[in-house]
Amino acid sequence: MKPKVVSIVGPTAVGKSKLGVEVCEVFDGEVISGDSMQIYTGMDIGTAKVTEEEKKGIPHHMIDIKDPKEGFSAAEFQERARELIADITSRGKLPVVVGGTGMYIQSLLFDYSFSQNPRDMDVVRRLEEKLENEGKNALHQYLETVDPAEAKRIHPNNTKRVIRALEIYETTGSTKTEQHNGGRESSYNFKIIGLEMNRKLLYNRIDQRVNSMVTSGLVEEVRSLLERNGPQSQAMQAIGYKEIIPYLEGGASFEEVLETLKRNSRRYAKRQYTYFKNKLPVDWYEVTEETFSEKKVKILSDLEGFLHNKEK
């Protein structure tokens, strides 16, 4: 019998963390964070990291596990989170994966294949020579012939990704698309709860959240991280951090970076919607601040039916 897993997804600021805690309270669960930036220590305000008070005593995993100078990947998340699911399940508790990083959720719930082969630098150098001698369009056309679907996903200017896709094909004999499409089976019996909100209401919540972050000390948090880690680390490319750097470096006014942060957060929410609606089998529930409690009752009822179903 496959382990049962609940996942709660949706755009930023929609209320995922709050619902995740309440689901765990009702069904004796533990939260696994599916957020690519909450893994970093010291990045609390800009990532809207759940506070100890908000956790209400519910264990939260995959938070504060990396230094901002360190990199992190979907493949590493997949490995660590699967170990956590096995552990949580073995203790008779319910794993509840909460987050807005679509690739992380998809790679965890499905048998999503990441290339485990080491980089073949001979192939890479040969592809780089092709790029230098024939140009980026010729390289992209080569990708179109061997992996048309991946070629559609990668712009010709993104030569790094083009080379990586071609390297996978030349070293494994299968395309990146074939490897990923193989991952439609799952090792879990899962249910994905999606929270959505009227766009105007959501954008207002995002703007309010950004204002609250600033009041809570976001600029000081970014300044401290910038001094310790520099602007080039993976963590400092996150929304909420990269926008503040020009202000700290004297290249933009505070009003300008604040508006840029709000705009980028709204755009990110739109991309999150697109990813979840196109890539994952989500059961969507539209919420507002006024109807959240009412919808929560419906969600909990639906989850009870799922968890008590003995199939699979």
UniProtKB/TrEMBL annotation:
Keywords: ATP-binding, Magnesium, Nucleotide-binding, Transferase, tRNA processing
Enzyme Commission code: 2.5.1.75
GO biological process, one term: tRNA modification
Necessary cofactors: Mg(2+)
Binding site for ATP: G10, P11, T12, A13, V14, G15, K16, S17
Binding-site residues, substrate: T12, A13, V14, G15, K16, S17
Annotated Pfam families: IPPT
Region (Interaction with substrate tRNA): 35-38
Enzyme class: transferase
Recorded GO MF terms: ATP binding; tRNA dimethylallyltransferase activity
UniProt-listed InterPro entries: Dimethylallyltransferase (IPR039657), IPT (IPR018022), P-loop_NTPase (IPR027417)
Known catalytic reactions: adenosine(37) in tRNA + dimethylallyl diphosphate = N(6)-dimethylallyladenosine(37) in tRNA + diphosphate
Annotated site residues (Interaction with substrate tRNA) in this chain: T101, R125
PANTHER family from the UniProt entry: TRNA DIMETHYLALLYLTRANSFERASE
Subunit annotation: Monomer.
Function: Catalyzes the transfer of a dimethylallyl group onto the adenine at position 37 in tRNAs that read codons beginning with uridine, leading to the formation of N6-(dimethylallyl)adenosine (i(6)A).
Membership in a protein family: Belongs to the IPP transferase family.
Protein name: tRNA dimethylallyltransferase
